[in-house]
Amino acid sequence: MLIQTTFQPEQLYAAVHELVRMAYPKHELTRDESELAGIKMHMEMQVNGEQVCLFGWMTQRDKRTVREEKHDIKWTGDTRRREINRMVRRFAYDLLVEHTGQSINSYGILTGMRPVKLVHRMLDQGMDTEHIREQLTDSFRMSPEKAELIMEVAANNYPYLVRKQQANNIIGLYIGIPFCPTRCYYCSFPGAVYKPGDSLQSFLTALYQEMEAIAKCLKEMDTSVQSIYIGGGTPTVLSEIELEQLFNHLQRLFISSATAEITVEAGRPDTLSPRKLKLLKDGGTNRICINPQTMNDETLVKIGRAHNRKEVVRSVIWAREAGFKQLNMDLIVGLPDEGSQDYQRTAEDILALAPENITVHTLAVKRGSRMAEREGRESVGDRIKNVQEGLTLMDRLFRDNYYKPYYLYRQKYMQASMENIGYSKPGHFCLYNMNMIEECQTIVGLGGGAASKFINASDGGLRSFYNPKNPVAYAETVDKLIATKVDNLKAVH
Ligand code: SF4
Predict the structure, then answer these.
(1) What is the pLDDT of residues 162-176, one digit of tens each?
(2) Number of domain units in the chain
(3) Domain residues for 229?
(4) Ligand 1 centre from 264 Cα, in Å?
(5) What is the pLDDT of residues 326-365, one digit of tens each?
(6) Is the whole-model pTM more than 0.90?
(7) How many whole angstroms separate alpha carbon 245 and alpha carbon 250?
(8) Can you give the CATH number for the domain in which 74 is found?
C-alpha cells in the first residue's frame, strides 16, 4: 500500500520517516499528494518564540486520527535543536500508535543502531538508575523490557569502555579480508568469492602497504593499538603462508604490550585446519570466532554454507587443542523454515561446546542478497513472532547458563523489536566489540571493506570512512585511502 506523507516544514520527514516505516513495514512512502495512497499522514510544526505547536492527522478509509500539542521550550543552542527533534518524533510516534492501535517499535522513538549509547550518555551525566529508566520509558517511549535490557547491557560494558580523552591514545585496528569461499544466500558482503588457487597477491600487497603507512603515522602520534580484529569476509581463506606473513606484519607494526586482544573471524569451519588454528595462536591471536549460524544441517544447505554440524564441533575441538581460551560463536535467528525446536537444539548444542562468547543475530536480509526476494513473500507478523520466540528462548537458555548480554546493536532492515546481542561469560567481554559498537575509541580499518571511525576527543564528534570492499578497487586506490586516513588521524589527534 502507498503511504502519503505531507510535512510542514519538509525537514520533519527526516526526523520521522523511519518511524512511519516501522509502523508500516514493506509499504511504500511518497512525499507527493497521491490519489493512490491508501494511508495519508500529515504533520505541521510551528515554533513561536518559546513555544512549539504540533498538529497532525492520519486517515485510512473512514478512520481519521487527529492530534495537537503545545510545548514550552526551555533550552538553548544544540540542546534546543535536539529536544525539539525528540518532541517531533514523540508526537509522530504517538500519532502512529493511536492510529494503528498497536505498539510500533519497542525501542520507542529510537531508530538508530546503538541504543545503549544513550544510556552511557546519561551515566556520564551522573543520572541514577531510576531517572534513566524513567527517561527511557517516558521521553523515549521505550517498552519497560527494552529499557531494562539496554540498561543491563550498559551497566555490564560501561566499566570497559575507553574514556573520551583516551579515544585516540589507545585505538582499535580492523583488518578486512574481503574473500569468502562461497556467498551465503542472506549476505551481500564479500568483495569476492575465493576459489582455491586464486591469487590474492595484489590485494595483500596493497594491504601491507596500507599497514606500513598507518603504523608509521600511529608511531609518530605515539598511539598504541589496544585490540585487533581480523574480519571479512572470511580471513581464514588465506593460506598458511599468507596468514604467517600477515601476522609477521602485525607483530612488527602494531602489536605491543598495550595490545590486549587479537580476534580472528575463523567464521567458516570449512576453511579451518588444526595447523591454521595453531598458526593463528602462535601469531598472537587470543580470541577466535567459529560461526555455525545454526546447528541444523538442512538449514545450512538452504543458506549456502559449505559446512555441517559435525565440522563445527570438530573445529571447536581443534581450536581448544590449539590453546584458544576465548571462543565466540555466532548464531542467527530467523533462518529459513526454522522454528522453536531448531532454536532450542542449536542453543543446546552450542552450550555443550561452552564457548566464552555467543553472539545472537537476528536475520537482516540485505538488499542484493539471494534471500531478499524470498523475504518479500513472507508475512511480516509471522516472521516477527517466530524471531521473537527464538530470541526469547535463546536469551533464557544463555542467561540460565551464566552468560550476560554485554553489547547490543540494531541494523537496517531489522524488524521493529529486534536486535543483535553479544553474550559472554563473566571475565570474557570482547574489548573491540564493546568499544567499536559504542563508538568510544578511534578504529582504523585497513583492507577490503574496512570501516574506520575517527573520534574527536574534544567534542565527541565522529567521522566514518570506508575502504572499497572489492579487492581490485581497493588495491587500485590504496594510495588515496592511506592519504585520507592519515589526514583524519592527524585531524582528531
Ligand atoms: S561468510 Fe559471512 S561474509 Fe562470507 S558470505 Fe557468508 S555471511 Fe557473508
Answers:
(1) 998 888 899 999 999
(2) 2
(3) 160-487
(4) 14
(5) 999 999 999 999 999 999 999 999 999 999 999 999 987 6
(6) yes
(7) 9
(8) 3.30.160.100
